[in-house]
Amino acid sequence: MGLLLATLVAFGVVAGTTQAFAGGDAVASKQADKYTEIDMQEPYIKDAELHVYSVKDDNGSPAAAITITHKNSAGVDPQITGVREYTAAAKEGWVFKNWTYEQFLKDKDYGNYKGIFYSFSKDHNNKSIPYTSGNVISVNRTGTIGESTLIKRIYKVYANLNPTITATAGEGGSITPAGKTEVTYGENQKYNFTANEGYIIASLKIDGVEQTVEHTASGSYEFKSVKSPHTIEVSFVREYTITYTDGVDNEAIFTDQVYKAASGSDTPAFVGTAPSRKDYVFTGWTPTVAD
Predict the structure, then answer these.
(1) Which keywords does UniProt give here (predicted)?
(2) Burial level of 137, CB count in 10 A (0-12/13-18/19+)?
């Protein structure tokens, strides 16, 4: 499974920088619907907590593989020198977007608070540069804002990713959009497919599973609330016209019957009783390929 690397280092607040959701029950519910917490709780300083999250797929699995790429002494995160830097690797079918963050004390979000340096910086070597984008984020201890062992300062960082959908069309038609499409997490994505002249839709597969589809010249499919990578495959088949005709000049034994059928399918049967004509015996049909 392929991985695309992205890194995070955290701790601080600055106006205009990227932030995650604030507090409140409604927002907390949205966070739970979108993110899963990564179990990275090493021994931590007693006056603070640090929580790391990733966007999750429909099964609740994280979309990113997150690792600590730099830290101070294990189990220690003192003021001024404490640091944890994270790298997020997008799993197959996902696109890493950015890190967002929150920093709470007594339910107040301090964002990217700046003491001696920023709480959330570009990386551990650049604590004076606030995090704004990229795959690395460093969480830095910047000096107290009033936390204690009884009233903890809480840091939260979130890895944000979007899923992709890969669309393919077989010979005889097209699908739009084709190829790999990045979809904003939780949004819908619609696909239209169109057969070339002389073809019709033969099959439609979503994530490799056959779907019910009308065998027509065009169709569509919409993914709802996309929270996982997907595939969509459409195939096409030639369509033929079958005409039952009496073949008698200047006399109508029966009205022509015209049908459409896909290549490889059973020939539609003649509807009605066998044709009859005075002084003749009906012996069957003679297939002829039209020009």
Answers:
(1) Signal
(2) buried
pLDDT digits (tens, 9 = 90+) for 176-230: 999 999 999 999 999 999 999 999 999 999 999 999 999 999 999 999 999 999 9
DSSP 279: T
Please state whether beta strands 108-109 and 94-105 pair in parallel, antiparallel, or not at all (unpaired). antiparallel
Closest CA to 139 of 207, 103, 85: 85
Tens digits of per-residue pLDDT, 18-28?
A: 334 434 444 55
* Sheet strands (E) in the chain: 4-10, 35-38, 48-55, 64-71, 83-90, 94-105, 108-109, 120-121, 136-140, 153-169, 173-176, 179-182, 189-195, 199-206, 209-210, 218-223, 230-244, 257-262
Measured torsion, CA atoms of residues 203, 207, 212, 215, in degrees rounded to the nearest 10 = -20
Here the tokens at position 51 are 């929580």
The structure's pTM equals 0.78
Nearest residue to 85 via CA among 72, 68, 102, 73: 68
CATH fold for domain 163-239: Immunoglobulin-like (2.60.40)
Q: Domain ranges for the chain, please list them.
A: 4-162, 163-239
